[in-house]
Every structure is written in structure tokens, then in C-alpha cells.
Amino acid sequence: MNSRCLKAIYVVYFGMKFLISSGNCQTCFDSSNCPTYAKCWRNTCLCEEGFRRDGDVCVDMNECTNINTCSRNALCVNIPGGYSCQCRSGFRTVGTHDRQCIDIDECNQAAQVCDRDEICQNLQGGYKCLCTGEVCHPNAQCRIEERGPRCACEYGFRGDGITCHDIDECSSEMHDCVAPQKCENTAGSFVCNHNNACSITSLRLLNMLIIVTLCSWHRNF
Question: Do 142 and 156 lie in a common domain?
Fold first, then answer.
């Protein structure tokens, strides 16, 4: 309990409590004579633990901006009269102690986090999925070939698998659009537009090119 006391004289009138005087320390008979978050202790109003005096009231102390015991891998969350520690992403608490956070080894979890052809490398607060010691580009996959695993860009992209760039089928004439259709490049593919009436979309699946045509007709009455 905070050792700094509050002077507060209240009177109760028809069930309502009114502050009629305040200042330094004041004798109290019970906690009903004290402000909110203060208790009467040895006839003196004292702020509860986690609160401090501010004039004639007790206000919450933000432990997160001062001294707290959260580990560096945890976030301090202020609550009235105290605080809690929440582990950052990739970390977990030690038992029931929320002040300490240790790394989660995602590579040793029951659920597999990487593809079967990739190697999982644990990091502090995270992990990496490696293919031959490298991290494949988001538009690449780790493939097992005769010479061993390697990163290979997906269809519609080109590169070494570590870096992949979109192939512009429209500018490189690698499309099936015919006049008056207009070729529009998309990530990993392309779209054929025809006067806003027909839309031809190409879908790449393995080595097959599937053409889907969507048309709309408008009838005037």
C-alpha cells in the first residue's frame, strides 16, 4: 500500500457521498471515507498498490513506462493497479510464469511447417524453410531433381528460384489473344479482353495452358 496519504473528508447525505474538504493526511474510520482506489489503514487514507496520489485522488501507475519485470521477448500491458506480460510472436511463457518468454522451436512441432522437400531452420522468434541452404522466392518451389533439391520459379515467372520475376506474356508475344482482343498482363499469367464483352483468362496448370472465356450479352428492349 502506498505510504503517501490523502486528506479527504466526506459526508453521506441521503445515500450520496460528498467531498467537503481535502488536503493532507486525514483521519478515516473506514474505506468509505476515502477516495476510489484508496483504503483506510490505521485511520489514514492510503492509495492501493499500483496507484499513486494525484491531488486528492488515486490514479493508476503505468508500470510499462517505468520499472517492470517483463523479459525482452515480451510486451508489457498496463492494467489498473498493475501490469501483465504477453510473449511476442514466436515465443511462449515458461510454465505459469508470464514474466519469462522463451523461443518456440517451430521445427520440432508436431505440425510440419515446411514442405517435405525443404529444410526447417529455427530462428529466435521464427523459422525459415530452406532448399539447399537457400530460401526460395515466394513465387518459387523447392523441387527434387536428379542433381538434388533446388529452388525453381513457378510457371509464369523466370529466375534462379532465389529471385523470380513475372513474365510479361503480352509484350513478349507469349499469349493467345487475337484481334480485337487486348492482352493484359497479370502476375504469372495474362488476360484477353474483348470490348468489355468477353474476357479470356489463361490459367497455367503444370505444363497445360487452360483458356477460360467469359462473355456477356446485353439485349435492348
Answer: yes
Structural domain contains residue 220 = no
**139 contact partners, CB below 8 Å, separation of at least 6:** 153, 154, 157, 164, 166, 188
> Which residue, among 210, 189, 193, 191, has the nearest Cα to 201 in the 3D structure?
191
Please indicate, yes or no, whether residues 51 and 34 belong to a single structural domain of this protein: yes
**Is residue 131, in this structure, part of any structural domain at all?**
yes
CA-based angle 151:152:158, to the nearest 5?
Answer: 130
How many structural domains comprise the chain? 4
Domain of 47, in residue numbers: 5-60
C-alpha cell at 94: 515458461
Task: Indicate the length of the chain as a whole number.
Answer: 221
Q: Are 115 and 161 in a shared domain?
A: yes
In the chain, the largest separation of any two C-alpha atoms, in whole Å, equals: 94
Mean pLDDT by 10 residues, the chain (221 residues): 48 44 60 85 84 86 85 90 91 78 88 80 88 84 77 90 91 83 88 65 49 44 30
Please tell me the predicted confidence (pLDDT) of residue 177.
86
What is the spatial distance between Cα 203 and Cα 83, in angstroms, rounded to a whole number?
Answer: 53
Report how far residue 216's alpha carbon sits from residue 197's, in angstroms, rounded to the nearest whole number: 5
Q: Which residue has the cell 510440419?
A: 112
pTM of the entire structure? Answer: 0.46
